[in-house]
Specification:
By secondary structure, the protein is an alpha+beta fold. The strands form 2 sheets. A 3-stranded antiparallel β-sheet has the order 1-2-3. Strands 4-5-6 form a 3-stranded mixed β-sheet, covered by helices on one side. Strand 4 and strand 5 form a beta hairpin. It is elongated, with a radius of gyration of 17 Å. 20% of the residues are buried.
Length: 137
């Protein structure tokens, strides 16, 4: 299908260095530092980028699952909270999802969310627990 490219550069030591990350399409170019990753300083960090990738993939996949089952989708809002624990290691992701799909039954919605959790390409690529808190609006 598609191969996507992203590039990153890091200069200097871990605590004193600075890096830049860029996606191949050119739509994202952002600096990152030790402080932005571990001390809530300005700049992006890998876990934030992972969350953005997961949230966007999950939203698209869920919209497709619901619409393919016959219910029009107005919107899927997905937020990803990526936890960086000791190690450091990503220890889990919580997705908070709100779907506006008039006429979608709650039982079908639950099935669609589970199908998406198992089928989303980013979800499948991750070896961490993924929790999904989903609701219909």
């Amino acid at each position: 299908m598609t191969t996507c490219v992203a590039n990153a550069v890091w200069c200097d030591s871990l605590s004193d260095g600075i890096g830049e990350v860029e996606v191949g399409s050119g739509f994202l170019h952002a600096p990152y530092t030790f402080a932005s990753r571990f001390q809530d300083s300005k700049g992006c960090h890998p876990e934030e980028l992972l969350g953005a990738a997961h949230a966007s993939c999950f939203a698209m996949f869920l919209a497709n699952v619901i619409s393919e089952a016959g219910t029009p989708v107005l919107s899927v809002l997905t937020s990803a909270a990526v936890t960086l624990g000791d190690g450091p290691a990503v220890t889990g992701i919580t997705l908070t999802v709100t779907v506006d799909a008039p006429g979608l039954e709650a039982s079908k919605f639950t099935e669609h969310v589970e199908t998406t959790k198992l089928g989303c390409p980013i979800s499948k690529a991750l070896a961490v627990p993924i929790l999904v808190d989903a609701q219909l609006s």
